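Structure ticket #2291
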Amino acid sequence: MSKILFVMTGADHWTLADGTKHPTGFWAEEAVAPYQAFKAAGHEVVVATPGGVVPTVDAGSLTPEANGGQEGADKIASALASIDEIRKPVKLEDVHLAGYDAVFYPGGHGPMEDLAVDATSGKLLTDALRSGKPLGVVCHGPAALLAATDADGSNAFAGRKVAAFTNAEETQAGLADRAKWLLETRLVEAGVDVQVAEPWAPHVVVDGNLVTGQNPASSAPLAAELLKKLA
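Resolution: structure written out below.
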């Protein structure tokens, strides 16, 4: 059995360009699908957030529209309610990478607010990347990579192939023209090699121990790739 660290956003909003606080948090499917896959394989999951706050689910991720109908919405809500670890997070500041076999970052717009500028998370990501341990990051989770900077100011993920929520998807979701910045653009500016696929289709990129996914639909296939690395 392996011990997998889920690093989740502690933010319940995303500040837009005009100062409006857009309600958000983590995206349900991106936590539930990997959690279920890891637990089914017999692994332990520990959730960590900045300050140890209980993470907020993005209400939009629980709607019938986001889950293929009411049945899917009911299923994801029930699954989420059964995850005790989410209600009892540890403080990210107290986490020691040595105690874990893999690290996973779900998305939602929350990471754009807090993890994108969280130095503790950035150091954890840098250490995880260089440790060779499986590191999975999905959708808006790669916003956290922006805080992974080396002493010279360069990004620790520069040159690495990564999938992340794209500008096209943000535009289709209706928030691109209201955002302070766009994830794909900012990652490219940091030197990350963003691999863009069709909007909303599952897309997973594996670059060494780093496994990334473009959108919510990529979370289950990403989890399957991480499990291969833990086998």
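Closing remark: Helices lie at 28-40, 70-81, 84-87, 110-113, 119-131, 167-173, 183-189, 219-230.
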